[in-house]
Amino acid sequence: MRKDYRVIPKELEPVEVQIMGEGFLDILTAKDIGESGLGVFIPTGYSCADIKYEVDLIITIPGFKSFEAGGIVKHTCAEAEKTDLRSFGIYFTRIKPEHKELLTRYVQTLHTDKRKHIRMEPSKDAPVVARTVSGENGKDLEVKDISLGGMQVKSDTPLALNSSVEDIDVIIHLPTGKKIMVQGLLRYVKESDGCYGVSFSKISDEDLFVLTTYVRQRLAARQKMIDYQG
Question: Which of the two residues, 84 and 131, has the higher pLDDT score?
């Protein structure tokens, strides 16, 4: 892997960059990131930084503790026609070895991670529960993890194996008090612990928005817990 290899963070797991310098107090989102630096999106109405401008940074990598670094603005893309594509690049001039190693792990993990969606485990204090409603054999399910594309569930009694080729209807109760309806297919079975993988085949836009909000809340809670660990 090249030293300056960059990766693009996942949509629901953005890399946040707090830039501290004259005129900067904002938390922005990274366009891409690598060991040597990162690109930062410029929101509408935001003034682009000047070349060679030195800044202090607080970088939050999803799943890792936030850290400080220093950098210099090396290039800008202020001329982009679409304002939401404007960005500027920052090259690191100061970063601790352990944080550079963290970046290496993050880049390598993201580069090899082929999952389309992020899976989050519900809080033990606020579980997610589901129930199949297909036919007359509704079953209660414990949700072990969930994403925008599917979930892993546990059932005390076996689920119908023909569900691997036929959609099953499931109502999911979120700890926020919301409930959503999805259709899904069984993708794998772990008979030893009664766990099943369910791939969503149909979900309404409204229910997808509700699920997206929940996943984002869980991501934020996880990051807060990591940042406040000793």
Answer: 131
Flag whether the pTM goes above 0.85.
Answer: no
The domain ranges of the chain are 16-112, 129-227
* Nearest in space to 169 (alpha carbons), one of 134, 196, 195, 207: 134
Decide if pLDDT at 45 tops 70: no
Handedness of CA 47, 29, 225, 146 (dihedral sign): positive
Q: How high is the pLDDT of residue 2?
A: 46
Query: How far apart are alpha carbons 157 and 226 in whole angstroms?
Result: 36
Spatial CA neighbour of 5 closest among 36, 31, 39: 36
- Amino acid in the structure at residue 105: R
| C-alpha 194 chain-centroid distance | 27
Which stretches does DSSP call E strand in the chain? 16-20, 27-33, 37-41, 54-60, 67-76, 87-94, 129-132, 140-146, 150-154, 168-173, 179-190, 195-203
Mean per-residue pLDDT for 183-192? 79
CATH topology for the 129-227 domain: Thrombin, subunit H (2.40.10)
C-alpha–C-alpha distance, residues 81 and 185, integer Å: 43
Tell me whether domains 16-112 and 129-227 share a fold: yes
| CA–CA dist 187, 198 (Å, integer) | 6
Superfamily of domain 16-112: predicted glycosyltransferase like domains (2.40.10.220)
